[in-house]
Design brief:
264 residues; five-stranded antiparallel sheet; 5 strands; 56% helix
């Protein structure tokens, strides 16, 4: 992967970079000036080379090249005879200028390439980590929806395979849906009931617990109840189970006969 903005690897602003570069050059000048009486007339640019390399490493090649130009002028003015003035240029001076400039420019070029390469590698690693994170999130989403789908199919399979045992259903906030088994056990004279008319078919002592179980949002599942019907001449007590499920993000209540079912 090619990172086209690798030349923008510097994390400092232009103003900060310029100020810090001038400070580095100033430190190099002060250090050379303090040692001037001991090493003159040698090494007029050596401390400036170090400063320019630091500038290239932290702030980029552009300010480093400007630092090289400033170093040539300052070094020539203060540390090459005649001092504190620009004298005639000799062959020795030209060799020193060329040596300093060539070494500094080559080093700056190498540092710039290494910094761009390091920046590109870091960006590639960050992109790979980001893509890996997105991939994990998508995989988690896929597993989540697959789990939800499996749960939904399990609920549907339970309803379809034991449909004859289901007494009634309630899905979400919708009305209670009565199944044929309810009407048969209740000895209902009609199969068309009003919205809450089904409660009149249930024994008054059992209607309230059943309605509470259907309306409860955090009821235990399964919940065992006894159910009697008011029109049943035998007053048979039916053992029922209220199952609480979550189907398509809505609560689903299923009331079915217990396996041990009925007792008189």
């Amino acid at each position: 992967m090619r990172i086209k903005n690798s030349k923008s690897w510097v994390s400092y602003s232009l103003t900060q970079s310029a100020v810090y570069s001038l400070l580095l050059l100033g430190m190099a000048f002060v250090a050379r000036m303090l040692l001037h009486s001991y090493i003159e007339p040698y090494a007029p640019f050596h401390f400036f080379i170090v400063a320019c390399l630091f500038i290239a490493y932290f702030f980029g090649y552009q300010l480093a090249l400007i630092g090289v130009l400033i170093s040539v002028l300052v070094g020539n003015y203060f540390f090459i005879r005649p001092y504190v003035q620009f004298g005639p240029i000799s062959t020795t001076d030209l060799i020193q200028f060329f040596t300093f400039a060539s070494v500094a420019v080559i080093a700056i070029y190498v540092i710039e390439q290494l910094q761009r390469t390091a920046y590109s590698r870091n960006m590639v690693v960050k992109i790979m980590k980001s893509r890996h994170k997105i991939s994990l999130q998508r995989e988690n989403d896929r597993l989540y929806f697959a789990k939800k789908q499996n749960q939904s199919w399990a609920i549907l399979e339970g309803i379809l395979t034991s449909f004859d045992e289901i007494v009634l259903l309630k899905y979400g906030a919708a009305n209670v849906r009565l199944e044929p088994l309810f009407l048969a056990l209740a000895h209902s004279p009609t199969y068309l009931l009003a919205q809450d008319e089904w409660q009149t078919l249930v024994h008054p002592d059992d209607a309230a617990p059943l309605q509470a179980a259907l309306d409860a949002s955090h009821a235990p599942s399964p919940q065992k109840l006894s159910l009697r019907f008011s029109h049943d001449p035998a007053h048979t007590t039916h053992a029922v189970i209220v199952e609480s499920n979550l189907f398509m993000n809505k609560p689903l209540k299923i009331v079915r006969l217990a396996k041990e079912a009925t007792y008189g």
